[in-house]
Every structure is written in C-alpha cells, then in structure tokens.
Amino acid sequence: MPAATKAQKSKPPKPKVRKDNPINAEYETQAKALVKYAMSLRNADYGALAANLNALGVEISERGLENKISRGGFSGAFLLQCIEALELNLTPNKR
Asked: Which one of 10, 20, 51, 65 is most buried, by most CB atoms within 10 A?
C-alpha cells in the first residue's frame, strides 16, 4: 500500500520588524527624545537615572540604560518608570 502523501503546509509569514513601520519608528524617536528631555530637566546623566531606577527596583546598569534609550524600543511602563525616577510630576491638575 503506498504511503499517503502529506499536503505541504505553507510556512507562516515572517513577522515584520516593528522598526520597519514608519509610524513606530517615529514614535520611538519621540520616546527617546522625551526621556532625554526629562533627563535634561533634572540635569541627570545616564548614571544618575540608572541609580534612581535601581532605587525603584528596576535593575539596569548605566550602559544598559544608555543602550535601551538609544534604541528607543522600550515599553510605556519603562518610560513611566524613568519619569518617576526623575521625580517629574506629569499628572494633570485635578479640578
């Protein structure tokens, strides 16, 4: 009896790189700029921000932080952690 031939399944599509989407790249650039601007408001360098993040419980080295910010592909949670570590109040005034 001949062996049944399996139907060839097509391979799943390759995922697109997030940075290939121009809108993502634009927002990542803005996120980088926002963190750097926040650092400039506090005259903080990467070492100071890394120390403040570590005090909050976010384990990151100065070099790791610099790399993460230069890539720009970090989460919104990390952005908020940086803002908190820099002690910036971005909460809108309640009326």
From this structure: 65
pLDDT tens readout for residues 40-75: 999 999 999 999 999 999 999 999 999 999 988 899
**Residue 86: how many CB atoms within 10 A of its CB?**
18
DSSP state of 5: P
Count of structural domains, the chain: 1
Task: Judge contact between 46 and 62, C-beta under 8 A.
Answer: yes
More confident residue, 79 or 22: 79
Does residue 76 fall inside a structural domain? yes
Residue 25 has which token pair? 């790249």
Domain range enclosing 63: 45-88
Sequence letter at residue 89: N
Which residues have C-beta within 8 Å of that of residue 68, sequence separation ≥ 6? 60, 74, 78
Is residue 25 a contact partner of residue 19, using CB atoms and an 8 Å limit? yes
